[in-house]
Structures are given as C-alpha cells and as structure tokens.
Fold this protein.
Amino acid sequence: MYKMFLPALALVLATGAVHAQDGRYASGDDANSHYGWADVLRVDPVYGVARTEVPRQECYEAPVVRQEGGGNTTAGTVLGAVIGGVLGNTVGKGDGRKAATVAGAVAGGAVGHGVARRGEREYEDTVTRCRQVSSVSEQRRLMGYDVEYRYHGDVYVSRLNYDPGERLRVRVSVAPAE
C-alpha cells in the first residue's frame, strides 16, 4: 500500500512545482491570480493646478497737508477779547461803556485770533499707508502618470503615482464569466 502512495505523492509534488515556477500560485489573497510582466509602451505625466491664497501687505505713499507753527488760536482769541473788552470799558461812559466793552471784546478777539494764526504755515507731505490684501498663487503640480502597457498582446492604460520605467509588474486575476 505504501508503494502505491509514494508515486502518487511524487506526482502531486511535481505538479505543484510546475505551477510554482509559472507564478500562478504566488503569495496573495486570491488563489486565482498570478503576477507577470508587461512592456510599457508610453508614460505621460499628468499635471494639476494647486491653488493657495497668499496674504500680503500692499503699501503706497499718500499726500497730506500739514500745518506747522503758530500758536493756540483759541487762547489768542480769548486773550484778545479780554484785552479788547478792558480797553473798550475804559473808553466809554454810561450805556456807551457797555457797547464799547462789547465792541472792544469782539475786535480784540478777532485781532488775537489773527495774531495767533500769523505764525502758521501749511505744507504738503507724504505718509505711507498700508493695507492687507490676499492673492491666489497657482502652482503646477505632478498628479501622476498615465501608463500604456502591453500584456500578452493586449494593450491597457492605468494611472499610477510613479513612473514604472520600461516594464511593469501586473497582477492577473482569472474568474469564470457568468
């Protein structure tokens, strides 16, 4: 009985060795698949556009009018009104004294205001003004490769994330058609 068992065992082992050399029983999840090599016919890089928003500061020179010198016009007006009122009060008599005081205060205020402004001068200057703006930056980016390859006379196309070179390892699965 053992004599019949040994030739059968040898036949099974030999058949398994032939299939293992063919690559049909390579390690993997599916027993109905194997690996092979395909010739690469063409590789085309595929590019996309990546957009990013870039904040930046934009500055410019703006003209302004400035005033320099002179005194405090409010203080000059008040001081002139007080002095004018005192002088007007000394000039008039009776009811005319009140009118002279008021007229002196008004005239003194106007003179005091004019004297305070006499030292002022205006000039043009520039100031730098800035504002925050954002621009969109577009960059061309490699997204992958469209690869055309031939396996056992048939031509296939796949998108890969790498350039396979001249040959491409493929997994071939066989399933019954329904």
